[in-house]
Amino acid sequence: MKLATQLIHGGPTIDPQTGAMGVPIYQISTYQQTSVDHFRKYDYARGDNPTREALEDTIAVLERGTRCLAFASGMAAISTTLMIFSPGDHLVVCDDVYGGAYRVLSTIFSRMGISSTFVDATDLAAIEAAIRPETKGIYLETPSNPLLKVTDLRGAAQIARTHGIITLVDNTFMTPYLQRPLDLGCDIVLHSGTKFINGHSDVLCGFAVVRDRELGDRIRSIQNAFGTGLGPQDSFLTLRGVKTLKVRMEQSQLNTARIVEWLKQHPRVTAIHYPGLVEHPGYETHRSQADGPGAVFSFELDSFETTKKLLENSRLAAFAVSLGGVESIISYPAKMSHAAVPKEERQRKGITDTLVRLSVGLEDPEDLIADFERAMGE
Question: Choosing from 26, 67, 95, 98, which is the catalytic residue?
């Protein structure tokens, strides 16, 4: 089946007990057992739940992995997965990694003796140079958040294999509809499913998908121990949301292209970071590993005054954290997604006080353009 069909039919779609067109919400904490010697498949919902399992099966198919684990948030997925590493281990991490990931790596895992070196992952030589004898993993985002930098996933995975280490990729911006890192040789794919996969700004969820089943078993064991699994209600809603991923991503990309072209001509816009632009430094690499440029980009404005006007006066694009909903969301990385990053570090990374990030939704793009024009002019 092609991916568009797998979005609808890739996982369990019919309840075998009733014929319901979807897996029910099993709002249950525990399950009756009938034998001391042989327990049923399900015993306690912290470990397994049929609704969550149906969602996990669906995402595993879409990412072409052997196993998927669904978590209570994207950060739960990231943090639980990082627990496969041990004190003394070292990670190489892309420089402008999501602020929440930066926070747990630099303040929590560092205290546990797991160190990180942050590098410009668009330069494979920089990744190679940062690897030490104790390095156990390479952690990447591509395109990255919020500067939309592009990493060559095939090249990074090859470096990892040469050194006998694993590659982890946050695929939130692209989703499996546009990019499948496991096919490119990576080992673990992470998602904030809160974003495009669910797509309706009404659920927190996260995923970890693996190529190697034994690695999946290790993450599953940690998930069960920590109790970070996704609840049945949110699992049900995300199963609903993923079915429209194709049509949402396609339309949002079309809207994004129109808005980006308009912004390119705007006198108050000084730079645009979007891998759909030919002038983007990662344009060719992105085209070689993804099926589209996505619906998130960032841009820089001529002053903080203009930035403040746009953020506070826009009526159609919500000034909010998060992305990937049916509604457009405009955010301010310096005080939102990357607020946990020290100011001097943000400045070094290029996350300035005039940088905004836009997740384009399903509104008519001409209405959004008119709204932005008015907001910056007020």
Answer: 98
**pLDDT of 11 higher than 90:** no
Q: What is the helix (H) or strand (E) element at residue 141, kind and residue range?
A: strand 135-141
| Options 180, 195, 220, 357, the catalytic residue | 195
Please say whether the beta carbons of 189 and 178 come within 8 A.
Answer: no
**Residue 217 appears among annotated catalytic residues:** no
Q: Is 195 a catalytic residue?
A: yes
Q: 25 and 18 in contact (C-beta within 8 Å)?
A: no
- 82-120: per-residue pLDDT in tens? 999 999 999 999 998 998 999 999 999 999 999 999 999
CA-wise closest residue to 286 among 185, 189, 182, 154: 154
Indicate whether this model's pTM tops 0.90.
yes
List % helix, strand, coil for the chain (3-state, nearest 5): 40, 15, 45
- Name the token pair of 352: 């300035």
Which domains, and CATH codes, for the chain?
Answer: 3-242 (3.40.640.10), 245-377 (3.90.1150.10)
Tell me if residue 26 is catalytic.
Answer: no
Please confirm, yes or no, whether 170 is among the known catalytic residues: yes
Using the structure block, give the residue that is written with the tokens 């309706």: 200
